[in-house]
Amino acid sequence: xxxxxxxxxxxxxxxxxxxxxxxxxxxxxxxxxxxxxxxxxxxxxxxxxxxxxxxxxxxxxxxxxxxxxxxxxxxxxxxxxxxxxxxxxxxxxxxxxxxxxxxxxxxxxxxxxxxxxxxxxxxxxxxxxxxxxxxxxxxxxxxxxxxxxxxxxxxxxxxxxxxxxxxxxxxxxxxxxxxxxxxxxxxxxxxxxxxxxxxxxxxxxxxxxxxxx
Length: 213
Hints:
- The protein has helices at about 1-15, 30-35, 45-50, 55-60, 65-70, 80-90, 95-100, 105-110, 120-125, 140-145, 155-170, 175-185.
- With about 210 residues, it is an all-alpha fold.
- The protein folds into 2 domains: about 1-20 and about 135-205; about 30-115, no CATH class.
- The longest helix has 15 residues, at about 155-170.
């Protein structure tokens, strides 16, 4: 299928991601912080910075103090309120396998957290709880629509099936597929397509890209 070919093409163009940090492992609250607010710098110190690892303490921080801690570590302070909501959602101990396996309930709970949109829900499920789901970023939708592999009228599950099947055929993980698609989105497939020099230019329809927006 053409999307699988696209994933393989992007892998050849961009290479593989650098080795993840030892901290970026599923089931840890620090991984959730990294997914939501960015990985930032791990060299910053201070009592408030240390609370980023502890959901019970992070949840009780004054919002401005949390924003400052995120700034100090090079993360996005705009994610502070969402992080506090997620800290209250996080189980007291690290998640058990049974807790992670209840995919539908976890999705419903995450969707109810203020400031957490559908794409971020998918990214948390994928990278933190290891649920096989593709984050449907704007880049993922644009790449699919502009190449004619799917359309804006497609349902969520149709998009999920498309990307899961393509990743499997391409022999790639969903997390790496997400990274590759976001990278081509940032460089070429933004609000306006920049097809010249795009690794996926040869896979465009004969008449050029379809416009989904």
